[in-house]
Amino acid sequence: MHPVLRLDQVVKTYGTHRAVDEVSFAVPPATLFGLLGPNGAGKTSLIRIITAITRADSGNVYLNGDRLAGRHPQSIGYMPEERGLYKRMKVFDHLMYLARLKGLSKSFADEQINHWMDKFDIQDWGTKKVEELSKGMQQKIQFIATVMHQPKLLILDEPFSGLDPINTNLIKDEIHQLKESGTSIIFSTHRMEQVEAICEHIVLINQGRNILEGKLQDIKDTFKDNLFEVIYKGSLPPGLGDQFRITERSDHRVVIQLEEGKHSGALLQYMVNNQVQVTSFQEILPTLNDIFIKQVEASNTTLPEEMNL
User: Which residues, in sequence order, are bridge partners of residue 202?
Assistant: First the structure.
């Protein structure tokens, strides 16, 4: 099966600045995919190329196995970070206008708009002007506008901006339902904890280059430091530090780093043999934020001097 989206050696230059530098990655079908990078990394330039707002200088973009062409943006849903609603239009009229631009018939557009407004319990918003809505309410309208033409590829840039926790969870639930129905979703945000909670695959862009890509769990496993947290009752055996490297220690909690190749079972067995009452035993995996910072810093030190500013 073809990836929903594949980039092959994509380059984009503005003047003397190479915003996208031979980037390649693939988005699998029906997946939640994180597009990550610091400010100025090239994420927005990539999104504009994928949505055919601009063209790559070289390289290729493929959608469902076909080279990106003028017809393809109709099958993509894109919600930019800078929201694009006409504030003086009424909500229903605005959604109908955007649906028709995407090629939906009037009857199907009407059906989809009502479906989503019912789903979000906002039927009474249809006659309100966009400018009468709060930022969070406008965000819901923007989301409906992005998904009502049933795209197989969604690109969501900071989709939870301006939403309270309840509405954030509402949109998260809809994102997961869309994924389960076969939609692939590119999720771009600066909030690493959101990516960690939602995404299955990620690509990390820095200075226009792809510096990390893969399944999130595989990446976390690759960067783990063999750290294990033990919560216990009572006391620890006096010889623990002779057998294992203790990196943290506090009341009834100890963190131990195992040597490369040493199995965690040996640590747990040592605790049991020494009659330690273990109440919790778990591996400490690095957070995505830790990995993000480490990889960006490492990438910056290896860039050519003129790029490492």
Answer: 34, 214
**Domain range summary for the chain, segments of one domain joined by +:** 5-84+137-220, 225-284
Sign, Cα dihedral of 132, 136, 137, 141 = positive
- Give residue 302's pLDDT: 58
CB atoms within 10 A of CB 135: 10
What fold is seen in the domain 5-84+137-220?
Rossmann fold (3.40.50)
Asked whether 38 and 296 are in contact (CB, 8 A), the reply is: yes
Q: Which two tokens stand for residue 78?
A: 């894109």
Q: Give the burial class of 282: count Cβ atoms within 10 A of its Cβ; 0-12 exposed, 13-18 middle, 19 or more buried.
A: exposed
CA 299, CA 286: separation in Å to the nearest integer?
A: 18
Query: What are phi and psi for residue 61, nearest 5 degrees?
Result: -120, 130
pLDDT digits (tens, 9 = 90+) for 169-185: 999 999 999 999 999 99
State whether residue 148 is helix, strand or coil. coil
Residue 169: partners with Cβ closer than 8 Å, 6 or more residues away: none
